[in-house]
Amino acid sequence: MKFSDKIIKVNLSNGLVKKENISGDILRKFLGGRGLNAYFLLKYTNKKIKAFDPDNILIFSCGLLTGTNALSSARIHVGAISPLTNLLGSSNAGGFFGAEMKACGIISLLITGKAKKPVYLYIQDEDVQIKDATKLWNLSTHETQEKIQQQIGDDSVKSAVIGPAGEKLVNISSIIFSSGDAAGRTGLGAVMGSKNLKGIAVRATKKVHALKTERIKEITKRHLNEMKNSPGYEEYSKYGDSTSVKWVDKLGAGSVYNYRDVYFKGVDTADGLSLKDFKIKRKSCFNCPIHCRAMIEIDQGRHKGFIGERPAFEAMEAFGPRCGNADAVESVYLHNMCNKWGMDSIEVGSLIAFVMDLHERGILTEQKIDGLKLGWGSPEAMEALVEKIALQSSWLGNLLAQGIREAANIIGNGAERYAYHVKGLSMTAMDPRGFKGSGLGYAISNRGADFANVYTRLEYAYIPQKAKEVFGNEKVADRLSEEGKSLMVRVTFYVSAVIDALGICKIPYLGLLNNYDLTIASELIGALIGWNISPEELFQCGERIVNAERLFNIRRGANRSDDILPEKFLKEPIDKGVCKGSVVNLEKMLDEFYSLMKWTYKGIPTKEKVIELGLEEIYTHPEKLSFSD
What we know:
3 domains
């Protein structure tokens, strides 16, 4: 099967568009998606470029398997220099945009420069037009998507847009896709805004004839049966991972009251299961049999009549227990408000919890909180803060719009102690003292504190016997032990990069099937692309991608000192429950991890490793993105 190898380069400053094919050798080494983004960022940026400089490159890359017959092959990866961390900007989304872009024959879209006025890109097959978006500026993401469809005259157009938050360069801005999916993490919506780019619309008009051999039919049927027979399929299909709020609470490792506590009294009503009796319309991403997403109609309370997207676990936790909010309906509403304005729900929820914590501690005084009643779980205060951040409409809103690290630095007076982040990216739901592998994953992740970038679920998904068989150490399956976690994190780091580079979803392949040996990925590539590529070669692709991302960060000044967890998790033991007494001995795990990675004590890949992976030239001699023939 001929795979998509077209890349489109757009310079918004002068309106030039260039089309070229990427070599098969590069695809074989980096695959697509997250891998190609790492390659392009390492090749075309230098340490002097800042996030909002016109020379920052915004990249949308489909996975190698995006839009194919592979189940759950919807994913697209977005990359740039992050305004939030000043390091790797990296975010992944599902829906239908990636499959539509792939159907146009395009695997990567590279955007540089800055338009003189607001514009959006319209891509029809391989034709690229730069259209006036002046009348779209200041519109919400939903309004923008509708207007683009009306202007083009085709309601099947798929789009990726920003809202007012991205226009105003709010550092936690997201990119919202027409399916409701978001590239939320690392603030890439603000990079779009800095380029005066309101959106991107894609439409493939040529019929795509997907390859349907008997082998492909047999493989997809087998995978479907395995997914449906997996223990977690039924719950995921009905509720997505929104029920994990109660799961993490039961394990004694939640993020309650801005990580003050690990258990939440109101967890039953904060959990996604509490929404089961509302009117729900399930939906799915491209070619996905799980249907883990849903629209919910609220039929009671102050939001009666509201219809919106059911949030995933991380947003439910961020707006729920982390903010002391026991009402899942409020979490649904706040998440959808973030999508409307174009902001990352995880960051917004974390910022609100941070502000509530500081106010209760007396660090943020009444004069600084815009007259809000900042009691834990106050829905009115939370809603007001969402809007203030999106529109930067007050001192507090403008402060929080800069992100949790910068906000804490400006507030001072000890606020930094309660700003829980890694590399400037807010922590996700699981307290690392209760998940030691996840804690190491937070610390070494190239984009900052995030679970999905290093999908370390094997520390609780494996039984000791399986951990012994795979890793030679049954302690890998003990989430409270640091033994074996460095080896496990190394493997899951590489595997996560491969899955993101292929454009398939982690939920079915890693979450339901636990396929961390890449045998399924190898099988799919062989059937759909025609490459004879072993799991071992794919594993090295993952290693290459992770190291390319690492080198990008090192070029921007990162080192071991950035691979750190907030002091709380290193020095304050959990004081109750099943994780009582646990802290993270990070330095020991880091030493082991760096050694396994063939990195120096400072966390820098050795020259031998860089040469082995073929990264030396693009790391030491970055180029300027060229638009000459």
